[in-house]
Structure formats: structure tokens, C-alpha cells
């Protein structure tokens, strides 16, 4: 069947074609009657073959058209597959990059895990130590809590105070300070002018002729004010010996009370020295009439003599002033005010008396 023709018109068309062919054959060739049937049969077979060829052609055209459509569809699908392949390649590169980054992150995570593991172990050790310390603290709090713990602490403190009292009482027996009739013609050391580090005098005050002595020795001011070639050497020696006694007593009491004195003492009996760790101005001889200042960047401790044998009287007076400042420091430590900057033996006696009192045990 041909496209565009209905089935009813097909026999008519075929008959018309056969008539044209017959007329052409008649005009072209004369056929015998005997051969007519054979010729008709041959023509009929040729017509059938032609019809089959046309049908095959139409079938092949349909198949070719469908193949063209399939090929076009295949090309479009190939294009889509190529685009998908490109996308997959890009995704693959991105995944490789992500894989590298992930590998780096894993290595970093492993290192961080190791570091955190070490910290966790250290924290566990610290936690164990803290737990032990906490238990010890609880035990200490339990021991200190309540009346028994407080009383134990007070008893220990009282035992310490009793021990300090006993040791300082031995010092008071070794270097006893007593009242004795003094010599009215001499000025006592308690009338020593109040001096500053610059060596200037602030005034003086005479005490009662009945003065204090240490082991029977007076501290007289006469050698400090009238030192000359004709001075009494024995009087000078007695004053130096008394100052040596006071310096030794101050050193012992400070060690028993566990109080580091501000101006340390270098003991040497009647030739002892007292040290000023940071002098601002060092006193010099009054005959020279000048003073030397020490460098602020290179300050060295300066020793001042507690005796007058061949020494400057101003330096010796300043040494006694520093010794009295040590006594004032010890008095302030036990809560007692100093009797004044010029009362060396009186301050020493007050220090010993306060330590041996009952109030010291409760402090």
C-alpha cells in the first residue's frame, strides 16, 4: 500500500496501469493467443514482484526513519553523557581535594588526640594528687576544728612563748640591767643627742643621776662629747664594753624572737660594729666639716663602731642611735612603744620586762 491512497482506489489504479501496459505491448508487440495467458501470468508476477518491492521499500524507509530518530536520540544522549562525564570528572577532582584535606584533618586530629591524651593523663595525675591533698586538708581541718584543735594550737603557741621567755630570761641574767646610784657630774648616755642619718642634732635631755647599768657598767656621754688626749681611757673602755653587752643582748633576743633586726650587729666584745645596709649619707669627722654622699646606684653597707678607741665621735654616736633603733624594732614587734631614741638601757630593760610578763604568753 502506498501512502496517501485509500484501499478502494488501489485496484482501479492497478487496472489502469495494466491497460496502459497492454496498450503499449499491443502497440509495441503482437502476442499470439496461445501465448497470451503465459504473458498475462508473467506480467501478473512482475506486478506482484513490483508491489512487494515497493512494500519493502516503504518498510525500509520506515526503518531508516526510525533508525535516524534512534541515531539522533543516541547523539543527544551521548552529549548528555559527555556533560555528565565532565561533571563526574569535576566532582572526582573535588573529592580528591576533599580527600587530601580530610587526610590532613585526620592527621591533625590524631596529633590533637595524642596531645589531649597526655593532658588527660596529667589531669588524672593532678586529680589524684588533688584528691590526696583534699583528704589531707579535710583531715587537717578536722584536727583544727572544734575545741581540741584550737586548744592544741594555743598550747603549741604557749609552749613557744614559754621557751622564748626562758631563753630571754637567760639573756637578762647574763646581761642584767639594774638601777644604781649614778655620778651626778657625768651625763648619762640616755642624754645622747637625737641624731638623724645626716648627723644633725635634734636636742638632748638629761636623766636622773640614779641611772641604769648593765653588769654594773654605766653608759656615760662624757667620752662622746669631750674626747681628747687627756680623756679617761678607762671610762672610754667601760662605755665600749657596755655597748658590746647591749649589742650582744639585742642579737640574742632578736634570734630567739625570730625577728631579723634592721641594722645587723658584728659582735666583737668592746670593739663591736653595727651595720647600716642602705646609708643615705655617711657621717664623717666633724673636724673636716664636710659630708660625703654615697652613690644611689652603688650603695654598699657601712659599718659604724660602737666604741671610741681611735674612732670619730660622730660615727660612734650614730652607731648608738642605730642600736637603739634595733631595740625600738623589737619593742614594736611585741606591741610596746619605745621610751625614746636616747634611752638605750631603758628600752632594753622594758623589752626584757615585757617578754617576761604574763601578757606576752597571750599575745
TrEMBL record:
Disordered, as annotated region: 1-24
Any one GO molecular-function label of the UniProt entry: SNARE binding
Polar residues composition-biased segments: 1-14
UniProt keyword Ribonucleoprotein, yes or no: no
Coiled-coil regions listed in the entry: 43-70
Name of protein: UV radiation resistance-associated gene protein
Annotated GO biological process: SNARE complex assembly
Record PANTHER family: UV RADIATION RESISTANCE-ASSOCIATED GENE PROTEIN, VACUOLAR PROTEIN SORTING 38
Organism: Linum trigynum
Keywords: Coiled coil
Entry keyword annotation includes Coiled coil: yes
Record GO cellular component, one term: endosome
Amino acid at each position: 500500500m502506498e501512502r496517501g491512497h485509500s484501499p478502494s482506489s488501489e485496484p482501479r489504479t492497478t487496472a489502469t496501469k495494466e491497460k496502459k501496459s497492454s496498450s503499449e505491448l499491443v502497440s509495441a508487440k503482437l502476442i499470439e493467443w496461445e501465448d497470451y495467458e503465459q504473458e498475462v501470468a508473467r506480467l501478473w508476477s512482475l506486478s506482484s514482484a513490483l508491489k512487494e518491492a515497493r512494500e519493502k521499500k516503504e518498510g525500509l524507509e520506515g526503518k531508516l526513519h526510525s533508525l535516524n530518530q534512534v541515531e539522533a536520540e543516541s547523539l543527544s544522549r551521548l552529549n548528555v553523557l559527555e556533560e555528565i562525564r565532565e561533571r563526574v570528572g569535576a566532582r572526582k577532582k573535588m573529592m580528591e581535594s576533599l580527600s587530601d584535606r580530610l587526610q590532613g584533618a585526620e592527621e591533625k586530629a590524631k596529633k590533637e588526640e595524642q596531645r589531649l591524651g597526655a593532658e588527660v593523663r596529667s589531669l588524672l595525675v593532678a586529680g589524684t594528687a588533688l584528691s590526696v591533698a583534699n583528704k589531707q586538708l579535710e583531715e587537717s581541718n578536722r584536727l583544727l576544728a572544734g575545741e581540741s584543735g584550737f586548744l592544741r594550737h594555743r598550747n603549741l603557741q604557749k609552749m613557744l612563748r614559754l621557751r622564748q621567755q626562758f631563753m630571754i630570761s637567760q639573756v637578762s641574767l647574763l646581761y642584767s640591767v639594774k638601777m644604781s646610784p649614778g655620778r651626778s657630774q657625768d651625763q648619762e648616755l640616755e642624754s645622747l643627742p637625737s641624731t638623724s642619718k645626716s648627723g644633725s642634732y635634734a636636742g638632748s635631755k638629761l636623766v636622773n643621776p640614779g641611772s641604769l647599768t648593765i653588769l654594773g657598767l654605766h653608759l656615760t656621754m662624757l667620752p662622746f662629747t669631750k674626747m681628747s688626749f687627756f680623756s679617761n681611757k678607762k671610762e672610754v673602755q667601760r662605755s665600749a664594753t657596755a655597748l658590746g653587752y647591749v649589742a650582744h643582748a639585742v642579737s640574742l633576743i632578736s634570734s630567739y624572737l625570730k625577728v631579723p633586726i634592721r641594722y645587723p650587729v658584728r659582735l666583737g666584745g668592746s670593739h663591736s660594729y653595727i651595720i647600716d645596709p642602705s646609708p643615705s649619707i655617711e657621717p664623717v669627722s666633724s673636724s673636716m666639716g664636710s659630708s660625703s654622699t654615697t652613690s644611689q646606684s652603688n650603695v654598699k653597707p657601712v659599718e659604724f663602731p660602737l666604741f671610741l678607741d681611735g674612732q670619730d665621735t660622730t660615727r660612734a654616736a650614730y652607731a648608738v642611735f642605730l642600736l637603739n633603733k634595733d631595740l625600738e624594732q623589737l619593742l614594736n614587734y611585741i606591741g610596746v612603744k619605745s621610751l625614746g631614741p636616747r634611752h638605750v638601757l631603758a628600752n632594753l630593760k622594758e623589752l626584757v620586762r615585757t617578754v617576761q610578763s604574763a601578757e606576752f604568753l597571750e599575745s
